[in-house]
Amino acid sequence: MATPTAVVGTHRKPVAGRLRGGDEVAWALTLLFAVIILAVTLLLVFELWINSAPSRHKFGFGFLTSALWNPVTDEFGALPYIYGTALTSFLALLISVPLGVGAAIFLSELAPPKISSSLTFLVELLAAVPSVILGLIAIFTLVPLVRSYIGPALKDVLGWTPLFTGPVFGIGYLTAGLILAIMTFPFIISVSREALLSVPREQREAALALGATRWESTWQIVVPFARLGIFGSIFLALARALGETMAVTMVIGNSPTIRASLLSPGYTIASVVANEFTEATGKTYLSALVELGLVLFVLTMAINAVAQLLILVTTKKGSRKS
Amino acid sequence: MKKLVVAGLAAALAALTIPAASAQNINAAGATFPDPIYKKWFGEYKAANPKVQINYQAIGSGGGIKQYTEGTVDFGASDMPMTDAQIADTKVKPLHFPTVLGGLVLTYNIPGVTATLKFSPDAIAGIYLGEIKKWNDPKIAVDNPGVKLPSEDIVVVHRSDGSGTTFVFVDYLSKVSATWKKNVGANSSVSWPTGVGAAHNDGVAGMVKQTPNSIGYVELIFAVENKMTYAQVKNAAGKFVTASFDTVTAAAANSKDLGTDFRGSITNAPGAGSYPISSYTWLLIPSEIKDAAKKKAIVDFLTWMIGPGQKDAQPLSYAPLPKKIADLEKKQIAAIK
User: Is A34 part of a structural domain of the chain?
Assistant: First the structure.
């Protein structure tokens, strides 16, 4: 009844023309979608660039190296936030990569099908939990756990390093890293598992035929074959860790200081923007927050670029692209 | 078929727009702290004047000031008065109308201590400056004889989100501590010398509840509703006062700092019965409203709010305006052109 006229029009063409027309419509439509995505990204950068102008002009590159964040005197620097963002994401990956990749190998290669399918379902369920819920769980269980057990234990064993000193509040870099690890490993498991499953059966059979054990075939043949997918999953996880706001804000302590101790409170870029944006008055203050957004964008881009490079280097020698 | 659908749509559209067109729509935005009472007031006012619909968005004080300055709302609301620089940016100068009052209390969690603690301004400033590090510091102990304070590190908790609540607290600290004024100052967010940040009242309250040996500040309303224990604070007259509607309203009545334009802060007010960490919250009304119908609606609302509307304050845990201030505000209403 209310069909758009454009579609009706193509249907009235002769058969040969209709086919060609269909191709053209599909081509134009998909091109349009691709252009829209590109345009949104560019618009985002443009907006961040324009709106951060007062702060960029006032602080220049000093913005990236200053550790001062003082809304009263209108002096802003991003260093504690960059440090916090990088440190928590690194901690998260340190935990979630071995855990995630290991679990993916188990699920795709070693586990009996029944266990594998039910576990996979659970993992996917975990990936769908909203971050604010995980944040609440972190506040009520993870924070007391770190304060009473994990923190003191680490201090006892590794207290001689600068990494585990100072009072244990239960909130801080370590707790944020732990909750980020919990949030990111479902991604690593599900994407890595898909990559491992897509390795052709012949590869495994050939390895076994040559006398390799099950583990040798998995670790020396299947995993290297799927490493592109595994890398992909890790960078997906990293992107999530860098940008995660809610859960991190709830447990990191929101204190813009740079400390070596993982037990001390810190701050991340996404958290400070979420915390201070609504009440930010004054042009410099607001544009400094926008500039933080720009810094996060550039940081994510840079890490993605490094990722692409890494993939390029590793795929050149050895296995073909999947 | 097509015609029927079109006719149906047109009828539905008409049904939606006609009542809206004949009513007076007024849009406002700002502070979250007074949001519950504003919602009640605007609702009650609409019940009495069905033609006036006031829409309020609780987007935060900073947002309220921003939207007022940009002229996207008919009036704004804020927990902090606008600064001279902010007023200079506006097209139509704002008039500040205090609506209700709130207090700010210090809540703490010290295992083994059940007594209500007493804090002097020196102790509070010292704790938040990071100069007082342990609970058994003489500056705290001297006002709390008989209380066995532990020799534990104080975990200082403050708000991480920018807020009017923080402004009131640091404004108070700036008044009672020269060091604070010089090193930190007052704003909706500041560069905290020590401590950890938690978002909103519930975040601070939760953090204090969970962390042994901690202290934090929350709004009086929030502490009352959640039956939290909070400290007595020594006021400018040297008396220890518990925060309540009466002591907060007393601070407002006794303060001489409000000024004729109602923009002053009333923290650290004189008078034996004044609770020192008290504050107004304001409506920012344009001094000139071109639309006559809108002007009448806003003036009517303001007159009603500072008069009969004040009875709604206490049931919602806000402290009402002192009579003296309400009378002064009535005069300011006449200044709206």
Answer: no
Beta carbons of B162 and A276 less than 8 angstroms apart: yes
- CA distance to partner chain A, nearest, from residue B5 (Å): 11
Q: List the domain range (segments joined by +) for residue A105.
A: 59-321
- Among residues 35-74 of chain B, which lie with CB inside 8 Å of chain A? 59-63, 65-66
- Is residue A194 a part of any domain in this protein? yes
Percentage of residues in chain B with pLDDT exceeding 90? 53
Average pLDDT over residues B301-321: 90
State ipTM: 0.76
Q: What b/e sequence results for A295-319 when a residue is b if at least 16 CB atoms lie within 10 Å of its CB, and e otherwise? A: bbbebbeebeeebeeebeeeeeeee
Q: Is A3 on the interface with B (CB under 8 A)?
A: no
CB contact under 8 A, A275 and B199: yes
User: What CA–CA distance (Å, rounded) separates A293 from A304?
Assistant: 17
User: Which pair of tokens denotes residue B316?
Assistant: 């919602």
Mean pLDDT of B275-282: 93
Whether A28 is covered by a domain: the verdict is no
Distance from CA of B212 to the nearest CA of A (A): 9
Q: Which residues of chain B lie closer than 8 angstroms to A267, CB-CB? A: 197
Chain B residues whose CB is inside 8 A of the A275 CB are 160-162, 189, 197, 199
Q: Is residue A108 part of a domain?
A: yes
The CATH number of the domain where A164 resides is what?
1.10.3720.10
pTM of the model: 0.82
For the stretch B317-328, pLDDT in tens is: 899 999 889 999
Instruction: Find the DSSP H helices in B71-217.
Output: 84-88, 121-129, 138-141, 164-176, 178-183, 200-210
Number of domains composing chain A: 1
Q: State chain A's mean pLDDT as an integer.
A: 87
- A255 to chain B, any CB pair closer than 8 A? The answer is yes
CA distance A272 to chain B (A): 8
